[in-house]
Design goal:
The protein has about 110 residues and is mainly β. The protein has no helices and 11 strands. Strands 2, 4, 5, 6, 9, 10 and 11 form a 7-stranded mixed β-sheet that branches. A 4-stranded antiparallel β-sheet has the order 1-3-8-7, with no helix packed on it.
């Protein structure tokens, strides 16, 4: 049974930082690409960043230079370091490995 568990979300002021984690189990993590997605209220789920099994990365234009995606294959865990957060980053953040999704973690950026 595949499980993806996100953590690290919360409330942060504009300009602040958060680090999201996605712990995977029941899947051969190191062979799969993974991605972070987000969904704001009333909007569609959009890609934030992806990382291939080999470590190649992709970022949405809106987060380039502020967010960093990484993975620790030995721990079957992926991360999203989010710096200089903006109110428009407020959303539920989901991780995806292969075609499996986590339950999401809320990120709220507000003063």
């Amino acid at each position: 049974q595949v499980q993806l568990v996100e953590s690290g979300g919360g409330l942060v002021q504009p300009g602040g930082s958060l680090r999201l984690s996605c712990a995977a189990s029941g899947i051969v993590f190191h062979l799969n690409p993974m991605g972070w997605y987000r969904q704001a209220p009333g909007k569609q789920r959009d890609v934030v960043a992806t990382i291939s099994s080999g470590g190649s990365t992709y970022y949405a234009d809106s987060v380039k230079g502020r967010f960093t995606i990484s993975r620790d294959n030995a721990k079957s865990t992926a991360f999203l370091q989010m710096n200089n957060l903006k109110p428009e980053d407020t959303a539920v953040y989901y991780c995806q490995v292969s075609y499996y999704w986590g339950q999401g973690t809320q990120v709220t950026v507000s003063s």
